[in-house]
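Query structure, 391 tokens:
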């Protein structure tokens, strides 16, 4: 075993039981009674929410205040994480926009506007975070410049991979817009401009992603719908994603990760496996902020997926049963990209270990190895988890 911890391996089931028995924190809503779908249709479920917490995508006000104060104090490991953030070109207030485009295409017919939206969404989010930490108006101006430009221009996302574009970039852009909507300098973002941004999300992004899809594509759509629903104050959009998380026959949590922690794409490659896990973690973090314990769903199934994947990528042997998504089955676990870790582990480590006081042996080991966590190429995920999620 790479972590050299036989005792931890033996105590794992008992420690995981702790997570199953953890009392939900104040305000945490109980889970739906219906079991998560593993195949076939299931009864729809609706969240108990009647309103949203704002800001409430990936970070709430307390989170943003903690990050700001720790960086100001030069505290470890937050400062090292902040240095990772500032080293990224997306975090610069001098970032040069690549868009906007009226039409974004992703797929076999071409990628016109695709990289522009991808890059600009990353820059909008990272400048929004920089604004909350530094108070430098130039960062707020840059984040809003990007959001305003795209919301006044974009009318169509199309192509064979349109769902991926809308789900991934939509989630990142909504996270940026959420921060700015509730922290922007007074008078810098008018109510009509905010309404225009809401309209862009509801009329351009949502129609592309609300049908979801198989496996990883579907999870990216669920993530996008979750984030967009919060920003737009749209419970219908949010509840569509909530229902898919629990019941969709191809992309629910229970379909994406089985009871042993094996993921539907474990047999495809380790990059896509981690992409899915990271997206599910973002869904759960946003849910937690909104008072919903999606992290605890199906006996903390997300943690099982992280532990299985972290263990395998650390070089350990794991059991594997032929499995896959609704459209494809993989007979063996894939070693492609094995050991290449994505910046998704700090968020989950800090939830299960720091928030709940539980155990996540392999996830903890990977988080420690990556610390301070930066961002992956193309930034599918928020990244910078050491800065953003250390507690």
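Result returned for the query:
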């Amino acid at each position: 075993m790479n972590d050299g911890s036989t005792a931890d391996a033996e105590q794992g089931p008992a420690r995981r039981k702790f997570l199953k028995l953890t009392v939900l924190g104040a305000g945490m809503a109980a889970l739906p009674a219906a079991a998560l779908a593993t195949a076939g249709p299931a009864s729809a479920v609706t969240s108990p929410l009647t309103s949203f917490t704002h800001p409430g995508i990936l970070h709430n006000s307390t989170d943003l205040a903690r990050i700001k104060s720790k960086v100001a104090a030069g505290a470890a490991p937050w400062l090292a994480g902040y240095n990772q953030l500032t080293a990224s070109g997306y975090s610069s207030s001098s970032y040069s926009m690549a868009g906007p485009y009226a039409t974004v295409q992703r797929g076999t017919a071409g990628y016109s506007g695709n990289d522009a939206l991808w890059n600009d969404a990353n820059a909008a989010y990272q400048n929004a975070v920089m604004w909350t930490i530094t108070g430098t108006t130039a960062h707020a101006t840059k984040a809003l410049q990007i959001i305003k430009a795209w919301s006044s221009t974009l009318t169509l996302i199309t192509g064979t991979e349109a769902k991926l574009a809308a789900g991934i970039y939509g989630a990142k852009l909504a996270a940026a817009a959420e921060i700015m909507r509730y922290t922007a300098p007074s008078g810098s973002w008018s109510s009509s401009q905010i309404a225009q941004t809401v309209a862009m999300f509801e009329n351009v992004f949502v129609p592309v992603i609300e049908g979801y899809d198989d496996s990883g594509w579907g999870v990216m759509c669920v993530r996008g719908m979750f984030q967009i629903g919060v920003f737009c104050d749209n419970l219908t959009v949010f509840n569509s994603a909530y229902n898919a998380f629990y019941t969709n026959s191809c992309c629910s949590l229970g379909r994406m990760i089985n009871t042993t922690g094996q993921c539907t794409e474990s047999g495809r490659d380790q990059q896509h496996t981690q992409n899915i896990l990271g997206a599910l973690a973002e869904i759960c973090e946003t849910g937690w902020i909104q008072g919903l314990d999606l992290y605890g769903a199906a006996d903390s199934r997300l943690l099982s997926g992280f532990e299985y994947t972290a263990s395998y990528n650390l070089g350990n042997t794991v059991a594997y049963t032929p499995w896959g998504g609704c459209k494809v089955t993989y007979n063996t676990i894939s070693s492609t990209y094995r050991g290449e870790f994505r910046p998704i582990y700090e968020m989950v480590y800090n939830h299960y270990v720091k928030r709940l006081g539980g155990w996540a042996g392999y996830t903890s080991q990977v988080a420690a190895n990556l610390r301070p966590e930066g961002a992956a190429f193309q930034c599918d995920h928020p990244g910078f988890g050491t800065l953003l999620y250390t507690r």
